[in-house]
Amino acid sequence: MNSIRRSFLLILFACAHIMLGCNSRIPANDLYGNALRLADSSKYKEAIMLLDELVARNELLPEVLFLRSDCYYKIGATDSMILDLKSLVLLGQASCQQRIIAANDIAIEYDFRSLVDSAILYQWKAIRLAQSCAVDTIPVKAMFFILSTLYGQQRRFEMAHSMLDSSLASGLDKVVVAELRASLFINSTETDSAIFWTSFAIKHQTMNPSNLKWRFQDRANLYHQKGELKAACADWQKALDLGLEDAQPKLDSFCRGR
Asked: CB atoms < 10 A from the CB of 244, how many?
């Protein structure tokens, strides 16, 4: 039995080397094209095998690492995905745009894993790359906004507001900034400031009027916390008039006879 098993393993070993030898004679662009077609057909593991060969040959590395990281993501191998993206961030052959996207993708994955410190580190890497290269692959205003949400998760509210200032200075819409600023003040239990910025968002909301019902609901809840029931009831009614049915129970509980 052992001799049969040994013979089988030797055959597999030989076949693997024959395949690698064949691949080594295929031009890099052709091999990459084959991997891309496999990935497009959802054959991610097969695509990774071809991409591994290109990595071993040190050819087309930026494109290969990007595609392989995506294949790893599709099969749930996110640790391997992160390793490829980290290699891209450090890769001299990679363009600024590729390195920025890689750093940003790492930040997103770490945020998904609730590894906020690591997410912040790589979001900063993406921002500094964008600033040093003077490219707008991912708008800096959006990355500062994401940083604000990350600092908010850590309850580092001063830093969160500072990042919002930077996103606003970089051109982010003032209503989007006001809405997150209000949310930060809600989380830091600064009710008056939360009301101010929610009111600002309501007053200047033009891009997405459907959000108004939620902002009226938010402000109503804040007024209720302060004991300003008349103002709370007025905002719950506005939210209901705009189609937010969740406001009805509040009106029934606190606003009857008013």
From this structure: 18
Is residue 145 within 8 A of residue 164, CB to CB? The reply is yes
Contact by Cβ (8 Å): 19, 52: no
Looking at residue 141, what DSSP letter applies? Answer: H
Over the range 51-82, which residues count as b (16 or more CB within 10 Å of their CB) and which as e? bebbbeeeebbbbbbbbbbbbbbeeebeebbb
pLDDT band for position 7 (50/70/90)? Answer: very low
Output the DSSP codes for 31-57: HHHHHHHHHHTT-HHHHHHHHHHHHHT
The 10s digit of each residue's pLDDT in 49-81 is 999 999 999 888 999 999 999 999 999 999 999
SS3 state at 205? coil
What is the pTM assigned to this prediction? 0.81
The DSSP letter of residue 188 is T
Distance CA 178, CA 198 (A): 7
State phi, psi for 27 to the nearest 5 degrees: -55, 145
At 197-235, the pLDDT tens digits run 999 999 998 667 778 999 999 999 999 999 999 999 999
**For the chain, percent of residues with pLDDT exceeding 70:** 88
Token pair for 225: 């916390």
